[in-house]
C-alpha cells in the first residue's frame, strides 16, 4: 500500500523494515520521484534503492506494478533517506504545530561586579511564568567592557541606578524589616504604658 507524503511534509516518519528513519529526528520530504522519472535520469531503480537493502526482484516488481515512488527524506542534520512510498508506515500531518526554541535577552549595560543577580533571576522567572505559562531557565552572561570606570563615574552611575530601584529587597527581607518595625512599636508602647502608670495616668 502506497503512503505518499506531501512535498515538504516536515516531522517524524515511520518506515517499514528494512528502511529506517530515526524516531527522534525531524525529516522533510524533499522529492517524490516515480520509477519512470528515475529511469529517464539514468537511474537503475532496483540496484540503487532495493538491492542494497536486501530486497528481491519480486519486491521491486510488486512496487513497480503499484506505480510506487521513491521518496527523498532529509533530516535537519542532513541525513538522507531514500524509501519507496510502499514502505512508509506513517508521515507527518501537514497541520502539525511548529515549535521553536525561544530565548529573550536582557541587556543591563555596564554594572559593578559586586551586584548579586539571584533575586533578579527569580523575579524574571516569575514574570515569565505568569505571562507565558512556563518557567524559563534564567542564565547569567557577563561580557567584558573596554576602558575603565573611574570612582567619580561609578558614584554617578550608582546614584542614578539606586534612585530608580523599586524592588530593592526580597519579600522575605521586606517581611523581616516590617517585623522589626512592629517589634520596635510594641516596645515603644510598653515604655509609654510604664510611664503612664508611673505618673498615675493609668489605673
Q: How would you summarize what this structure contains?
A:
The protein has 203 residues and is an alpha+beta fold. The chain has helices at residues 35-40, 45-49, 57-65, 118-132, 151-163, 171-198; strands at residues 10-11, 14-15, 27-34, 69-75, 80-84, 88-90.
Please name the defining characteristics of this protein.
203 residues; alpha+beta; 3 domains; four-stranded antiparallel β-sheet; two-stranded antiparallel ribbon; 6 helices; 6 strands; elongated
Give structural notes.
The protein has helices at residues 35-40, 45-49, 57-65, 118-132, 151-163, 171-198, and strands spanning 10-11, 14-15, 27-34, 69-75, 80-84, 88-90. The protein is an alpha+beta fold. The chain has a 4-stranded antiparallel sheet. Strands 2-6 form a two-stranded antiparallel sheet. It is elongated, with a radius of gyration of 35 Å.
Spatial strand arrangement across the major sheet: 1-3-4-5
Tally of helical segments: 6
Biggest beta sheet attributes:
4 strands, antiparallel
Radius of gyration: 35 Å
| Alpha carbon gap, first and last residue | 102 Å
Structural class: alpha+beta
Amino acid at each position: 500500500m502506497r503512503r505518499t507524503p506531501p512535498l515538504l511534509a516536515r516531522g517524524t516518519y515511520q518506515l517499514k523494515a528494512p528502511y529506517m528513519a530515526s524516531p527522534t529526528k525531524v525529516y522533510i520530504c524533499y522529492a517524490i520521484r516515480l520509477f519512470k522519472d528515475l529511469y529517464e535520469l539514468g537511474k537503475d531503480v532496483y540496484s540503487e534503492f532495493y538491492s542494497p537493502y536486501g530486497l528481491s526482484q519480486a519486491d521491486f516488481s510488486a512496487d513497480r506494478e503499484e506505480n510506487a515512488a521513491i521518496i527523498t527524506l532529509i533530516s535537519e542534520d542532513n541525513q538522507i533517506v531514500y524509501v519507496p512510498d510502499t514502505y512508509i508506515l506513517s508521515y507527518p500531518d501537514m497541520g502539525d504545530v511548529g515549535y521553536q526554541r525561544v530565548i529573550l535577552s536582557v541587556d543591563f549595560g555596564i554594572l559593578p561586579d559586586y551586584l548579586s543577580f539571584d533575586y533578579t533571576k527569580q523575579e524574571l522567572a516569575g514574570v515569565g511564568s505568569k505571562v507565558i505559562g512556563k518557567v524559563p531557565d534564567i542564565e547569567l552572561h557577563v561580557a567584558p567592557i573596554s576602558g575603565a570606570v573611574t570612582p567619580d563615574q561609578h558614584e554617578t552611575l550608582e546614584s542614578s541606578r539606586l534612585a530608580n530601584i523599586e524592588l530593592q529587597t526580597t519579600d522575605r527581607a521586606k517581611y523581616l524589616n516590617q517585623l522589626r518595625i512592629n517589634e520596635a512599636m510594641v516596645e515603644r508602647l510598653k515604655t509609654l504604658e510604664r510611664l503612664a502608670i508611673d505618673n498615675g495616668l493609668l489605673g
